[in-house]
């Protein structure tokens, strides 16, 4: 009786150890964030970026359609006329002011949908913590240079 | 016109007036027919083919253009059949062939009839694979209008407006077939004074507003129905604002006032509203410098100084200058403060006590209007006396042109210059400044048949026209009725009207946006609110009961007297800038013990003030304005600068009255409007709510009868000795639309349109003095001198020099120095 129980227990342990041994050789599923990048799906909607054309011109033409589409009024656009000798964007119109309030944004992607020139896109950056409220309002310069290390992530 | 015809539209019987166009009949029946070229205020042309509908005829069903076809009795029309839809789709596809799809950067996007109709009636797909036609995209056809020839759908609306309303065909169609483009004529920019209306008319984004370019999106602006304050016509406008800024002004329909048209100054010159130099905080002079202070400190200082000055020199040493540019509420509060708190009648405005006015303005603008579909003007002959509507009242000018061309109105012009409206060939009676009353008496004699037989043919022709007319209207403006000459002109014109007969009337129109309201509010040294004389018992007892005080019967100083007088110790200046009008006044303002300036911008007068109070302007606070036909209209708050500490005038004076120990029951602008309805009998019932979006005229029968002029005689009229050897030229001055005033000059885009710092001479005089257009000269009068350049134009009479008021950097006041007429000489610099 006791032996039977012992063998039964040993078998259970062996079974459990089997699982352990089976995973011993496999890669771990956890990621050492923030020291390592986590995998992001291609259609993930993170921090916004304003894109440029290959020739350096801004894609954004200041049409304000993203602003109209935005359900939370997170976007503010102020358009202006291009200097024909030094245009910022193709055509006559560009965005003089482009501000995006991350505290209001719900990352729905409607701005992306509305944009006729695919200028505003939701990028893959999701770590957007910040210390001051005003820093959550992204300016056009910040949106045009998405690589800017504005976001501080605690090292520990 | 009253006959009705019955027709069937989409199986429903509709009864409309005969001669109605099918497209309008359908609109009345609630059936939508898409149109581009058709417009209810323009003649039909039928060029876009969008409005084709099925009409049953003797030879079967035909597709007819409903915008050119008048209704007929028993007509059977269908607008919703398969064939109509097919044609609409095909037509839209055709219009879109060459229309660029740059809606995202087009200012019309969001309020574009082509967008809307493409969505509603279009095919939904495009079969076009070929490239679109290319043409000029950013093409300034004037300083204020941008043309995009690619977007144009050739509907002719702009061309027709300029021809039919402005009578200035400055746009046309050029080239043929696929290459047809709309363009200016011979490279000359569009300069019609109301050209901006073609922007509102354009059914696509081909014509856009250069001043408001890219500054608004139709879906993000707040729309406030308001009235324009640039001149006394009081056109109805809509203020489009966003983020506390006024972004754009467009016309608003009011068939009693402006149809739906507004002038370019009203449309484009609004940059001053959001100017960065706007006064935003009270300032007090300390150690010779104006420094920002709190409201409480500024008001306490004023109250303290006023009490001291009143005790020392008496109430009549304190005066106030109101303005025809500010609202009824502001002016009412100012004069109540002076009359009830200070106890003086020293209150006036420019063109106030010095001008011999009449109390009721025009009988009604509709009597001069000829709308597209409507009766002819009631008036058949108009006399413009010293009034130049083209420069002073552009929408009145538009109505008059239309009335002449389509309503059979005859025009007689008496003016010191051969003004633009003289091109309609009516009698032009010239006079020299100061010779107005002489001209009136000559005209009167010609009408009475007592004129000399060798009287000028123009005067005889004018008299003949007046005698033939059944309903004539004599309109005079402040330029003809200022100073000593004024009463003579006014009385002479009244006698002229009596001599002409029953159908003749005389009207005075002021020029400033609220010139009429300013008088109605009693901003006059000899007139209480309602324009009652100071000794009118009823008016006095009503006001004394309302205000709880005794009123002075001692007539106050006029505008000019206040500034000339050495006895003034303290002066309030509200929305006026007398320092630029005369070097002497500029000096005397500095002599005052207390000068309080309430204004929008740091004017020359404000620079001299002891206290500067920042006021909220026309777009920033609720106010009512009374136009030249006594129509009281609302201008509600449209924008507020959150950083500014400016306050509305009525609030400033309510607080000041409180500091001086009087409690006024005003909690908001509407309560001031409500008190005006009690203080001015003619305004009874005209509360803020009652005025509505179209305003209401006050009843001219409730105005006090103007001084019995029938008894007065035209004595003392003698030919003034015009011109002498030393000063050979008569100075002619007056208002131009595009001047150097702050309300205009702060709109940068319009700088190129502004009247230059010029003195205009008759070609004969220029030749005599050996001057050419462009010569740099110094103009001298006995009072002062002014550096200008010469322009030469035959519209100026021989022996005259035309220098408009408030030119940029060239105040004609330097030559006039407070007088109304002056002789000048011209020297080469």
Question: How would you characterize this protein structure?
Answer:
The complex is a heterodimer of chains A (156) and B (829). With 156 residues, chain A is of the alpha+beta class. Chain A has two domains: 1-30; 48-144, Alpha-Beta Plaits. In chain A, 24% of the residues lie in helices and 15% in strands. Chain A is built from four helices and five strands, in the order αβαββαββα. Chain A has a three-stranded antiparallel sheet with strand order 2-3-5. The longest helix of chain A is centred in the N-terminal third of the chain and has 23 residues, at 2-24. Mean pLDDT of chain A is 88; it is low at 149-156. With 829 residues, chain B is an alpha/beta fold. Chain B has five domains: 4-80, Ubiquitin-like (UB roll); 129-274, Alpha-Beta Plaits (2-Layer Sandwich), CATH 3.30.70; 294-355 and 514-702, 3-Layer(aba) Sandwich (Rossmann fold); 365-508, Dimethylsulfoxide Reductase, domain 2 (3-Layer(aba) Sandwich), CATH 3.40.228.10; 729-828, Barwin-like endoglucanases (Beta Barrel), CATH 2.40.40.20. Helices cover 26% and strands 20% of the residues of chain B. Chain B has 24 helices and 36 strands. In chain B, strands 15-14-27-26-25-16-17 form a seven-stranded mixed sheet. Chain B has a six-stranded mixed beta barrel with strand order 31-35-32-34-33-36. A five-stranded mixed sheet of chain B has the order 2-1-5-3-4, with helices on both faces. Chain B is globular and about 95 Å long. The model of chain B is unreliable at 707-721 (pLDDT under 50). The chains are: A alpha+beta (156), B alpha/beta (829). Chain A binds chain B through residues 61-65, 67-68, 79-81, 84, 91-93, 116-117, and chain B through 102, 104-105, 109, 137-138, 213-215, 217, 219-220.
